[in-house]
């Protein structure tokens, strides 16, 4: 029997993650049945669960994959840019700002955090990635003289994470997004260092 290359396994895993992302976003965690996951990925249940132990492991890997992508954006451009990308995707300006159906996945993560204690414990260990990236970016901005220095970096990190969660909730409720770009401009301005003229 021929041996499968690591590249092939990685490609198949990516195919499963990309296909399941749209399935979870469209149907939610409970509605993403194995049959629907098969249709979304174009693979059999055996192929899917060869790479992931069960549906929860698949969803957690997907959410972790999105968190990694977000952390990469944070490292280069900051958490406010993640929010801008999310808003662009939600309003149809940039359909794949962070990856297909990122908002749906993020909403499902938020819902499961509220309702599933075991998921909350598993996710807590993984969500530190985004917090660490945000903190590191803010420290770099402070060292560069661009970040206000009258507020602790941990407080600014918590502030930006709260704004992100508020944005996700706002979009989840289908509330108008007309002024949200200006709100994000204000958020970004609120953490900048203001030099005297």
UniProtKB/TrEMBL annotation:
InterPro entries: DNA-bd_HTH_TetR-type_CS, Homeodomain-like_sf, HTH_TetR, Tet_transcr_reg_TetR-rel_C_sf. Signal peptide: none annotated. The keyword Kinase does not apply. Residues 33-52 bind DNA. Residues 10-70 form the HTH tetR-type domain. Keywords: DNA-binding, Transcription, Transcription regulation. The keyword Lyase does not apply. This is TetR/AcrR family transcriptional regulator. It comes from Saccharopolyspora griseoalba.
């Amino acid at each position: 029997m021929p041996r499968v290359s690591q590249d092939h396994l990685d490609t198949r895993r990516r195919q499963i993650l990309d296909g399941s992302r749209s399935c979870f976003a469209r149907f939610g965690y409970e509605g993403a049945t194995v049959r629907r996951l098969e249709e979304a990925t174009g693979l059999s249940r055996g192929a899917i669960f060869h790479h992931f132990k069960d549906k929860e492991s698949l969803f957690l890997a997907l959410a972790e994959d999105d968190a990694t992508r977000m952390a990469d954006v944070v490292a280069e451009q900051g958490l406010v840019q993640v929010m801008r990308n999310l808003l662009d995707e939600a309003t149809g300006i940039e359909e794949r700002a962070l990856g297909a159906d990122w908002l749906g996945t993020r909403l499902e993560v938020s819902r499961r955090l509220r309702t599933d204690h075991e998921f909350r414990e598993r996710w807590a260990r993984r969500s530190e990635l985004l917090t660490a990236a945000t903190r590191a970016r803010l420290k770099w901005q402070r060292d560069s003289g661009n970040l206000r220095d009258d507020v602790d970096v941990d407080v600014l990190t918590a502030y930006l994470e709260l704004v992100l969660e508020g944005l996700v909730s706002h979009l989840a409720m289908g509330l108008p997004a007309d002024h949200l770009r200006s709100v994000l401009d204000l958020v970004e301005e609120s953490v900048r260092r203001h030099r005297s003229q």
